[in-house]
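stage 2 :: seqdesign
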C-alpha cells in the first residue's frame, strides 16, 4: 500500500476512480445546491412580481360587479343630496336606466353600456368616484352657493371651458378661420336661461363634469357639429352619450355595415326597402369616406381655430344610421393654440417632434420642434383609413377599373402630403385642399356610377327628452 492509502496496481487504479467520482459528486452537489438556490430565489422574485402586476391589472379590470358598485355609489351620493342631474332619478329611483355591460376601464376612465328608456347609451366618467374630482373652491364658503347667480356660474364655467379647450379669451375674439367667434361664450349662453340660483349639488356636479376634457369638448361642439357624439344626459360625474356603431381594425370595412339601418329609408314602404337592398358594401364605404372628407373640412375650416385629431384609428370613430362619421373618443383632439403648446418642445431629431398622429419638424439649429403641425387630419385619415379600404387586395377584380385606379393614386398622394420645413402655410393649405377636392370628385363619381340613390336621415334623438342637466 502506498502513502495516502492508495492501492497500487489494478486495485489502486480502481480506488483512484472511486475518489475522483467522490470528489466530482461533492463538487456537483455544491454546484447543484447553488443552482437550486438561485432558481428558487429567481422563481420567488418572478412570482412576487407576477402577483404585483396581476393585482395592478385586476385593480382596473373591467367587471360587471365593479361597474354596478360604482353606479350604486353614485346613487348613494344622489340620495344624500351631494350630486344631481337629469339622469339621476331615472337611474336611482325609477329604474329606467338598465345596466347592460362594462365596456372598458382605462387609466381610471370608466365606460359602461346601458339602456335608457329603451335606447342604448354609453355612460362615461374620467374618474371612478365623485370625491376624486376637485371641488369648486367657492363652495368651501358656507352658503355661498345660494348667493351665486346664473351669471356667476357662467363666469366660472366659461373660464373652465377655456382652460380645458386651451383657448384664451383673446384667441376666441380673433376674427377669421371660422364662423364661431367664441366657443366657450356660445356654450355659456345656455347657462343664462335660468331664473333661480344653482344648488350646491348642481354646482358640484357641473364642476366634476367640466373637469373632464372629453365631456367639455363634446358638450360645446354638439350644437355646432354633426361629427361629434351627442351628450344625452348626466348624473353627478357620469354622463351619457349616444350609442353608435364603432369601428374595428379587424373588419375589412372598418364598420359593421350589416348593423347599419339607413333611417332615411325607413317608413318608405317596399320601394324604400328595395333601394336599400341595392346598396352594396362598397357603395356604403364610399358614402362613409365622403363623410370623413366632410368631417375633415369641417374641423379645418368651420371653427375659429383648426381642430387637430392626434389619435386616428377605427376604434375612435363611429357611424350614425345615415352613415355620418362621428368622432366618439376625443381625448386626443386639440384646437390650434393647444396643439402648438404641445408640439413646441426640445428636440434632437424629427422623431422627438411626434405626438401620436400629430407631428412637426425639429429645427436642429435651435434644437426646438416647430409649433406648427406638418401633417394633417386628412393625411393621417388617408394613411390609416382610406388606404386599407381602397387597396387592390380588397377590391379584387375591380382594382383595375379606371376610377378605382385613380382613387388609389389619389389616396397614395394624400398619404404622402406632408408639409416641409420651408413650405409656406398657405401653400400647404392649398395643396391639401387640392387633394381633398380630388378625392371628393372621385368618390362622388363612383357613387353616381354605382347607381346609389337616396339620402340618409339624422341620428337617433331621445324622443321627448332633451338634455337639461343644469341647463347645459
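stage 2 :: out
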Amino acid at each position: 500500500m502506498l502513502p495516502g492509502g492508495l492501492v497500487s496496481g489494478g486495485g489502486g487504479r480502481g480506488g483512484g476512480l472511486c475518489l475522483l467520482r467522490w470528489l466530482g459528486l461533492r463538487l456537483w452537489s455544491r454546484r447543484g445546491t447553488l443552482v437550486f438556490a438561485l432558481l428558487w430565489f429567481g422563481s420567488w422574485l418572478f412570482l412576487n412580481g407576477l402577483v404585483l402586476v396581476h393585482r395592478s391589472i385586476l385593480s382596473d379590470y373591467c367587471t360587471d360587479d365593479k361597474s354596478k358598485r360604482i353606479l350604486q355609489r353614485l346613487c348613494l351620493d344622489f340620495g344624500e343630496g351631494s350630486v344631481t342631474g337629469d339622469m339621476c332619478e331615472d337611474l336611482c329611483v325609477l329604474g329606467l336606466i338598465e345596466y347592460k355591460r362594462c365596456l372598458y376601464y382605462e387609466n381610471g376612465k370608466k365606460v359602461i353600456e346601458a339602456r335608457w328608456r329603451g335606447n342604448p347609451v354609453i355612460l362615461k366618467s374620467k374618474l371612478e368616484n365623485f370625491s376624486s374630482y376637485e371641488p369648486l373652491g367657492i363652495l368651501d364658503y358656507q352658503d355661498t352657493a345660494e348667493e351665486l347667480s346664473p351669471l356667476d356660474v357662467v363666469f366660472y364655467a366659461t373660464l373652465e371651458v377655456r382652460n380645458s379647450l386651451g383657448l384664451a379669451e383673446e384667441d376666441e375674439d380673433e376674427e377669421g378661420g371660422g364662423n364661431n367667434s367664441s366657443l366657450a361664450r356660445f356654450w355659456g349662453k345656455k347657462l343664462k336661461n335660468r331664473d333661480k340660483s344653482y344648488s350646491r349639488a348642481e354646482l358640484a356636479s357641473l364642476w366634476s363634469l367640466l373637469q373632464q376634457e372629453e365631456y367639455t369638448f363634446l358638450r360645446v361642439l354638439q350644437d355646432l357639429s354633426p361629427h361629434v357624439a351627442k351628450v344625452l344626459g348626466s348624473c353627478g360625474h357620469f354622463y351619457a352619450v349616444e350609442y353608435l356603431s364603432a369601428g374595428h381594425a379587424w373588419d375589412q370595412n372598418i364598420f359593421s355595415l350589416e348593423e347599419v339601418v339607413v333611417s332615411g329609408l325607413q317608413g318608405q314602404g317596399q320601394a324604400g326597402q328595395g333601394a336599400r337592398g341595392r346598396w352594396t358594401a362598397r357603395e356604403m364605404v364610399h358614402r362613409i369616406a365622403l363623410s370623413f372628407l366632410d368631417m375633415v373640412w369641417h374641423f379645418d375650416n368651420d371653427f375659429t381655430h383648426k381642430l387637430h385629431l392626434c389619435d386616428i384609428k377605427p376604434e375612435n370613430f363611429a357611424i350614425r344610421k345615415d352613415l355620418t362619421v362621428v368622432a366618439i373618443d376625443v381625448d386626443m383632439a386639440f384646437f390650434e393654440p393647444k396643439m402648438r403648446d404641445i408640439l413646441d418642445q426640445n428636440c434632437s431629431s424629427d422623431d422627438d417632434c411626434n405626438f401620436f398622429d400629430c407631428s412637426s419638424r425639429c429645427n436642429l439649429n435651435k434644437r426646438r420642434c416647430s409649433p406648427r403641425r406638418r401633417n394633417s387630419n386628412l393625411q393621417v385619415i388617408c394613411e390609416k383609413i382610406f388606404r386599407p379600404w381602397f387597396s387592390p387586395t380588397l377590391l379584387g377584380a375591380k382594382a383595375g377599373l379606371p376610377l378605382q385606379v385613380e382613387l388609389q393614386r389619389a389616396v397614395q398622394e394624400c398619404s404622402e402630403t406632408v408639409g416641409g420645413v420651408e413650405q409656406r402655410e398657405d401653400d400647404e393649405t392649398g395643396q391639401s385642399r387640392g387633394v381633398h377636392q380630388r378625392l371628393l370628385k372621385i368618390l362622388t363619381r363612383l357613387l353616381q356610377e354605382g347607381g346609389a340613390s337616396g339620402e340618409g336621415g339624422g341620428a337617433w334623438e331621445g324622443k321627448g327628452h332633451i338634455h337639461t342637466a343644469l341647463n347645459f
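stage 3 :: structure notes
- The longest helix spans residues 9-59.
- The first strand starts at residue 97 and ends at 106.
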